[in-house]
Every structure is written in C-alpha cells, then in structure tokens.
Design a protein that fits this description.
With 106 residues, the chain is mostly helical. The protein is built from 4 helices and no strands.
Length: 106
Amino acid sequence: MYPFIFTVKSSPVDEATKPLLDIKHVRQEIFAKFKQAIQDSLPFIENDERLLTNVHILFYTLHGIIVTHSLPDESALERIDQLAPSFREACEVLISGFRSRAIQTE
C-alpha cells in the first residue's frame, strides 16, 4: 500500500496545480502536514525555499526508513513497533539540524 500512496504516478506535491488523481490530493495533504509540523517546530523559518527544502529532507528521511524496513513477512503493527524509535530520533535530529542551520544563516 505504501508504494501506491507515495510513489505510483507521483509528481511534485508542492505544486499548486489541481490534482488529476485523488491520490495526489492525499499526497498534498500529507505534504501540508509535514510543512505545518516543521513550521510549528521552527516558527522563525519563513514559508520559503528553505522550508520547502526542509520538508523534502523530512519526507525522504522517513521514506528511506520505511522502504528499508518494508519486509513482506512482518505485520504492519510489528513494523510500527520496530520503526517508531527510528522515526522519533530521525525527526529530533532533523529538527535540531534545521534549527542550527537556520541560526547559522541568519
């Protein structure tokens, strides 16, 4: 299911075009939630290219964790239990790095 939601017939979700596929609308909603999460964590980062780059970094990091650990013989609950610590740590490290980088470039 994950490949269908995130990769099949994918296109940039940050484009303001009307989605031709219903799944693209779902992708845009997820992207918006990632964007809002970063803005909530780093309110001093404006809605600009840096924010967009940070959202892409977050997405590709989480995507990499999921794809690397997607084994067909594990249940979804087993995967969630296995990956939750990695997700938490990855997000904490990314936000810390985003914050540090934003402070350095100001």
